[in-house]
Write a structure and sequence with these properties.
The structure holds two protein chains of two kinds. Chain A is mainly alpha-helical. Helices cover 52% and strands 0% of the residues of chain A. Chain A is flat and about 20 Å long. Chain B is α/β, with parallel strands linked by helices. Chain B has a ten-stranded mixed β-sheet. In chain B, helix 2 packs parallel to helix 3 and helix 9 runs parallel beside helix 15. About 2% of the residues of chain B have low confidence. Classes of the chains: A mainly alpha, B alpha/beta. The interface between A and B is medium-sized, with 29 and 26 residues.
């Protein structure tokens, strides 16, 4: 649930995602990246290099 | 300067290749650089790995073996090079080795070796045989498709995670449906596109195989729709993955979407350092020579400062664009190759904006 909330916060400005298998797949992947990020406020894009 | 690098590119045979693809930029590059074809020496490999390790960022390093055709270096070369790499890293870093190959030289023993050394291959294929063979040929003009796909299947048979890179050129840009149907029929799980640009000819307005912005846009949007409507997330297209992830707040991975070259270094077979392998035919961007200088000296050279500041200034020009966080202002190399400066407009700016707008409309509710 926390993952879904994190993604929802990220996409709030864009609107609501459609129900689609490809969108769901990447939604989960992004949620996982956010969850794995070791600090609370870093840019997820920066996580790759850590 | 500590904690700078995340990716290392090496072209062990420079531009040497057993193929002669119609659009290859390396042919003209070879003349431009007057670089003799050679295999990188063991001493240079030692120097590279020993010198760069103190400058790695985090605990991971990606090494990409590129070309020309990097398999021409031979199997013994890779066994030795990875031994040297292992000694230099000494268990302190997790190293991911990748190789970009045309696939024609891959046989059982090569596939076994890459599996053993855990080198992840990406194979260059331009779609179905009739499209691929009309532009990706051997030096004598002979077709390559069957050998390329044999190599690809040998990797797959060993469960090696294998990518595929397709150059989109005048040869196949009007055939997105045929290319897509081929992807599905061949069960290609993971690939990406590289839109063809011929820098010298682009500047003269005389591209032969290179694409206009409109052609890139049409292909990308049509192909996205074919993939998205098919709806199978097991088929992964790197560009579309990054666009979707970027739009929903995730990270993008492709270097040209985040000026990744600021954290890369590339070495040719002579040990010359560049920001990326694509600069190897632009000698004025040589950052230094690992045979004659320490890596610290290379990082502090005037050329390194000039290149890095130029790239950063180019990125700053896009800071007001609403897509900047996803796009990263485009590939710095292409800006330099086409405009002679990093401040010029990215050649795929319009195609990217069109793609972002299109994907946004498709993945969010109206």
């Amino acid at each position: 649930m926390e993952d879904a909330v994190a993604v929802a916060e990220q996409v709030e400005v864009m609107g609501t995602l459609i129900d689609h298998p490809i969108v769901q797949f990447y939604e989960q992947e992004v949620a996982h990246e956010i969850k794995m990020c070791p600090c609370d406020d870093c840019d997820p894009c920066d996580y790759e290099a850590r | 300067m500590e904690g700078l690098l995340v990716k290392l590119l090496i072209t062990p045979v420079d531009f040497d290749c057993n193929m002669n693809c119609g659009y290859c930029y390396n042919g003209s590059a070879r003349t431009l650089c007057e670089t003799p074809n050679q295999i990188i020496s063991e001493d240079t490999i030692h120097r590279i790995f020993d010198q760069i390790v103190p400058f790695l960022k985090g605990d991971q390093l990606v090494v990409i073996w590129h070309g020309g055709e990097p398999l021409l270096a031979g199997q013994d070369f890779y066994r030795e090079a990875l031994k040297v790499q292992k000694q230099a890293v000494n268990g302190r870093y997790q190293v991911t080795n990748c190789i970009q190959t045309n696939g024609t030289l891959v046989d059982e023993s090569w596939a076994d070796l890459l599996a053993e050394l855990k080198i992840g291959p990406s194979v260059s294929v331009d779609g179905p045989a009739y499209l691929h063979n009309s532009i990706r040929t051997f030096i004598d003009g002979g077709p390559t498709y069957d050998l390329v796909m044999r190599g690809y299947r040998l990797f797959q048979a060993r469960d090696i995670n294998t990518g595929m890179l397709m150059v989109i050129s005048q040869n196949n840009v009007r055939h997105p449906e045929e290319v897509w149907n081929w992807v599905v029929e061949q069960q290609i799980p993971h690939f990406d596109f590289l839109p063809c640009i011929e820098p010298e000819l682009w500047r003269q307005g005389k591209q032969v195989y290179g694409l206009s912005s409109e052609e890139v846009t049409r292909f990308f949007i049509r192909f996205f729709d074919l993939w998205f409507d098919h709806g199978d997330p097991k088929i992964k297209i790197r560009t579309f993955r990054d666009v979707i992830k970027g739009l929903i707040g995730g990270r993008v991975n492709i270097c040209s979407w985040k000026a990744g070259c600021l954290q890369h270094i590339s070495f040719d077979a002579s040990g010359n350092a560049f920001p990326c392998a694509r600069y190897h035919s632009y000698p004025e961007t040589t950052l230094g020579d690992i045979q004659r200088q320490s890596f610290s000296e290379i990082l502090e050279s005037k050329t390194t400062k000039w290149v890095h500041e130029g790239i950063a200034e180019g990125q700053a020009k896009c800071s007001e664009c609403k897509w900047n966080a996803i796009c990263g202002s485009g590939c710095p190399f292409l800006k330099y190759a086409l405009h002679g400066t990093w401040s010029g407009r990215y050649v795929h700016c319009q195609p990217r904006q069109s793609l972002f707008n299109h994907v946004q409309k498709r993945i969010f509710k109206k």
